[in-house]
């Protein structure tokens, strides 16, 4: 194998590895971040959310850096917006 062939095959291997890393790690992470920002910017009162701890509740108020979530009647907790995600309920008839 000539030095040129060795360098050429090594460069192709590195380019393919970078492409695979981008497709498997960086791109899904960027899409997830974009979805999170879209969710947080559209967050409004009475939206059903789940905290990072798994607590389900409804948004009762939104202030600058805190969201108040009502988890039961007259029980409210303050949560950072980064710790919220939308609550998706299963459709009837699915397992």
Features:
95 residues; SH3 type barrels; five-stranded antiparallel beta sheet; 41% helix; rod-shaped
Structure notes:
The chain is an alpha+beta fold and 95 residues long. It has two domains: 1-42; 44-90, SH3 type barrels (Roll), CATH 2.30.30. The chain is 41% helix and 26% strand. It has a five-stranded antiparallel beta sheet, with helices on one face. A hairpin with a 4-residue loop joins strand 2 (56-62) and strand 3.
Could you provide a short overview of the structure?
The protein has 95 residues and is of the alpha+beta class.
Chart the SSEs and their pairings.
Elements: H1 3-41, E1 48-51, E2 56-62, E3 67-72, E4 75-79, E5 84-86
Antiparallel strand pairs: 1-2, 1-5, 2-3, 3-4
Strand order of the largest sheet: 4-3-2-1-5
Give the number of DSSP strands. Answer: 5
Strand content: 25-35%
**What's the shape?**
rod-shaped
Low-confidence stretches: none
């Amino acid at each position: 194998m000539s030095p040129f062939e060795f360098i050429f095959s090594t460069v192709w291997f590195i380019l393919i590895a970078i492409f695979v890393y981008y497709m498997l790690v960086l791109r899904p992470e960027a899409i997830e971040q974009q979805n999170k920002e879209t969710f947080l910017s559209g967050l409004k009162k009475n939206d059903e959310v789940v905290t990072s701890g798994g607590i389900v509740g409804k948004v009762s108020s939104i202030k600058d850096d805190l969201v108040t979530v009502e988890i039961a009647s007259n029980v409210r907790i303050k949560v950072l917006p980064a710790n919220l995600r939308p609550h998706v309920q299963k459709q009837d008839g699915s397992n």
